[in-house]
Amino acid sequence: MENVRLVKLASGEEVIFKDGGPSSIAGTITMKNPITLHVVPQGQDQYGLQLFPYSPSCPEGDHVLYLAQVVSECKDVPDGLVKAYIQRTTGIEIASAVDAFANLR
Questions:
Q1: What is the pLDDT of residue 58?
Q2: Is the CB of residue 68 less than 8 Å from the CB of residue 55?
């Protein structure tokens, strides 16, 4: 959906973004509206995810991602997470996005 990717970087960050394709720099791609995922506790043995701008100083801009920094990629990004990402980056609320995101546990 919408060419959304989820990668884990060598720094340990998980980043969800829309793939903007190859950039003009070899070995890189363009991340459109990247968002960082943070795990937060929500009670005993439960957790949730919060979405934060990848770069607070340029929250809606394009960023170059050096592919050498990617240690893994989620092949099937959960629909609820994709919907939450789209809602966060576009303001468009997709039906049941919040409910689906809440059920990622």
A1: 87
A2: no
From CA 64, how far away is CA 34, in angstroms rounded? 10
CA distance 10 to 1: 26
Using the structure block, give the residue that is written with the tokens 């884990």. Answer: 8
Task: Give the confidence band of 60 by pLDDT, cuts at 50, 70, 90.
Answer: confident
For 60, the token pair is 């809606």
Hey, what's the torsion of the CAs at 15, 20, 21, 25, to 10 degrees?
Answer: -80
pTM, to two decimals: 0.82
Nearest CA to 8 out of 101, 95, 98, 72 is that of: 72
Q: Residue 66 pLDDT more than 70?
A: yes
